[in-house]
Amino acid sequence: MFDVIVRSEEPILLVGGGDVDNDSLRAALSRFRCIVAADSGADSVLKAGGMPDAVIGDMDSISRATREALDPRVLHEITEQDSTDFDKCLRSIDAPLVVAMGFLGQRVDHELAAFTVLARRSDRPCILIGREDVVALCPPVLNLEMPRGTRVSLWPLANVTGRSTGLHWPIDGITFAPDALAGTSNHVDGPLEIAMDAPSMLLILPVDFSDALSRAIMAGPRWVS
């Protein structure tokens, strides 16, 4: 068990130290009441004109200037090195949804580590927003309406099965696995419903559908640890 540092009844914005568009971040900062930064994500928050309510991580990359500009009470240092700063944040937040920016792009190893955390913390709903894509762990059931032809990609993190309606290529009866069959470059033909049998499938959509995906995840069931 881990201590909860931030609790909210509303979605939380989590900002990492990776690639993030400053204009997009500035717009996001104006929409969320609670802002959490993962270590050097605090630098990005301040650069975009915001102020984090909490900074969580091992504090090995936050700049000295940013650290000195913050109230020491918002700094929550977790020194263990067996987990990433993203993991430290996600396990420390209790909210209906975490919207995370600054975790996609730049380093592939950081992206892969973030995907692993989504599966490890499947009881903590979270979407990762990048410049081109939004990525989330498929919940038990997801209902979403998007225009016909919208790209939908599914990437398994382990052996997993599920069912779908509205996908051009249905997933019923298929066993997906990272070393076998994936479901990339599918698309929708109608109202989309995806049901997964385990918290092991990533859903990848165009970034324009971030808000729609957020609403769909909060409206549906969530995985229980």
Would you mind describing this structure in some detail?
By secondary structure, the protein is of the alpha/beta class. 22% of the residues lie in helices and 30% in strands. It has six helices and 14 strands. It has helices at 22-29, 41-47, 64-69, 85-90, 108-120, 210-219; strands spanning 6-7, 12-15, 35-38, 54-57, 75-77, 93-94, 98-101, 126-129, 133-137, 141-144, 151-156, 162-167, 183-196, 201-206. Strands 2, 3, 4, 5, 7, 8, 9, 10, 11, 12, 13 and 14 form a twelve-stranded mixed sheet that branches. Strand 4, helix 3 and strand 5 form a beta-alpha-beta unit. It is globular. The termini are close together. The mean pLDDT is 96.
Rg calc: 17 Å
**What is the helix tally?**
6
Separation, N- and C-terminal Cα atoms: 11 Å
Secondary-structure element string? EEHEHEHEHEEHEEEEEEEH
Helix and strand composition category = alpha/beta
Strands, count = 14
Instruction: Report helical residue fraction.
Output: 10-25%
